[in-house]
Amino acid sequence: MEKLITVMVPAYNEEIVIKQFYSRINEVINGIRNYRFELLFVNDGSTDQTLEIIKQLRETDQRVSYVDLSRNFGKEVAMLAGFDYAKGDAVVIIDADLQDPPELIAEMIYYWEQGYDDVYAKRRDRQGESWLKKATSKAFYRLLKKTTTIPIQEDTGDFRLLDRRCINALRQIRESQRYTKGLFSWLGFKKKEILFTRDPRAAGETKWNYKKLMNLAIEGITSFTTYPLKLSSYLGFFISIGAFIYMFVIIFKTIFFGEPVSGYPSLMSVILFLGGIQLLSLGVIGEYLGRIFNETKQRPVYLVQEYNGEKEFVIHEDH
Ligand code: UDP
Ligand code: MG
Q1: Model pTM greater than 0.80?
Q2: Keyword Transmembrane helix on this protein (predicted)?
């Protein structure tokens, strides 16, 4: 039996590119012999015609299937839904906007057959992105790399081929606030890097804004390292030592030089500085606490409106 490869596409309001995407991916997978393909779209609560277009595609092409989520859960969660419903021996994650060239899939399969479990595409450069996005992303990676113990891949997105064992592993990780890119690293297994040039979006606009990116960055840090918590303890420790020494200086001064009622500036700056540090530490603790709160509720990570036309509200266990 020929091996099945699932091409998994998270899609959120992609009505203007999805047909173009389909025709390009169709060409690519028609050119790859000896494999069967499944084209699994995860409709992440689109409010436009995305779902209708996917349904039309399914009518003419039986390789197309889709999971329709009950609302917009975000790409990270949409990908988990994709892992749950993918049937393939390997899964290729690809964006709907043609920023990830489908032509690379053949190469990914080649390395997969060589025994690699995670063949990921690394960007040679970042075309069509502003210098601000490049700079912030660079700073974020630097911070994350410094503070985590697992290796994080820079300039790598979700565009990759994963072996079935990676998919099964990812399905076990059911945190609702996900940073999938970190999870790929966390998994380990045999990884292979291939290089590509990321094109600008074919049409439509990015679903990311700085607020969302900022949240993803916080997700990345809080779900992979407790370093910020440690940092607050260190800060607290050193500042206490500083405060202790300063206390002795004050006592000494008072005993030997008397006590003139002044020192308003120093008092004020110490109070403000300590207040700032305390608020910051509280905020850090709050970020972690909030995540503990969210995970302890043990809600299903996503809900499904329909799968290939069937209404189904049970959370998937296994195929
Ligand atoms: N996406 C999604 N849910 C969302 C946001 C995005 O499924 O809430 C999908 C989107 O349709 C696309 C992919 O994730 O296929 C990447 O999104 P986008 O191109 O907006 O991100 P960028 O390439 O700018 O990082
Ligand atoms: Mg994109």
Answers
A1: no
A2: yes
* Residue ranges in the chain modelled with pLDDT below 70: 126-128, 312-319
* Local structure of 110: helix, strand or coil: helix
DSSP 3-state of 83: helix
Token pair, residue 162, equals: 């994963």
Give the distance (Å) from ligand 1 centre to CA of residue 95: 7
Report how far ligand 2's centroid is from the alpha carbon of 97 (Å): 6
pLDDT reported for residue 12: 93
What does R_g of the chain's alpha carbons equal in angstroms?
25
Task: Quote the DSSP letter at residue 114.
Answer: T
Q: Look up residue 156 and give its two tokens.
A: 């790598």
Choice from 75, 133, 155 to test ligand 1 binding pocket (greatest atom count within 8 A of CB): 75
Q: Convert the pLDDT of each residue in 199-215 to its tens digit.
A: 777 777 777 777 888 88
Q: Is 156 helix (H, G, I), strand (E, B) or coil?
A: strand
Mutate to test the pocket of ligand 1, among 207, 212, 302 (most ligand atoms within 8 A of CB): 207
Q: Enumerate residues lining ligand 1, CB below 6 A.
A: 10-12, 14, 44, 72, 74-75, 78, 95-97, 99, 206-208
How many Cα neighbours within 13 Å face the side chain of 140? Answer: 21
